[in-house]
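Pipeline run #58 for the internal structure catalog. This entry was flagged by the ingest filter as a single-chain record with no existing model, so it goes straight to prediction. Upstream metadata was stripped on purpose; only the residue string is passed forward. Reviewer on rotation: M.T. Logging verbosity set to normal.
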Amino acid sequence: MDSTSTRTARPQLTARTAAVWAVLRRELDRHPDQSLTVLDVGGGTGGFAVPLAEAGHQVTVVDASPDALAALTRRAADAGVADRVRAVQGDGDALAALVEPGTADLVLCHAVLEVVDEPAGVVAAISAALRPGGAVSLLVASRAAAILGRAINGHLRSASAVVTDPDGRAGARDTLRRRYDAETAAELLRSAGLEVVETHGVRVLADLLPAAVLEEDPQAVLDLELALAARPPFRDIASQLHLFARKPR
């Protein structure tokens, strides 16, 4: 096996992750002979961390859940990459105190900014953790998708609440504290000194199609998701928005 192939993550792709992995693979391919230092904020049980470690990269996962970190440790051991995965307990709001500044080549922050107390502080800590030229993969919940999904299912008052609420919440029982559109998410990154390089939609159709359609031809669903991921307006109605940004050198 050549050195390039050992640095390329090969996870099991699904319609829910393919657009993100496509971007991450391009970033990994920029460093074919390098073991990157990766920080996965809120990385849970290692859905991204373990494949990255299998590709030869050193990954630190910060997560608030001890159960998730225990599952991550078992998963990394089963994959034979326990020496490349480090588990750190802590939440996103405490990130600045958990990570050395200027040490990460790549930071993943997926489904975190919706639930933390201070998203701007988390993004500032991510920017500080990155080396110059390093990159961040940010995945956030989409306000447009929440509106559309509720309306399609007949929850019109709930959809209206998401429209008018400043943070895109559907009410006091909403499990998320905020949602984003492409511009508000990009502005959060820019305010921390990061330059947005790409924006994609994740799960453009996967959460709208009946299960029978998803199961009948998974490859067709995957191909269509990838084809639509970067194309407005389809990108903007995806369940999640994926922004890839870089810290200037």
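catalog note: Residues 1-6 have pLDDT under 50 and may be disordered.
catalog note: The chain is about 40% helix and 20% strand.
status: ready for reviewer M.T.
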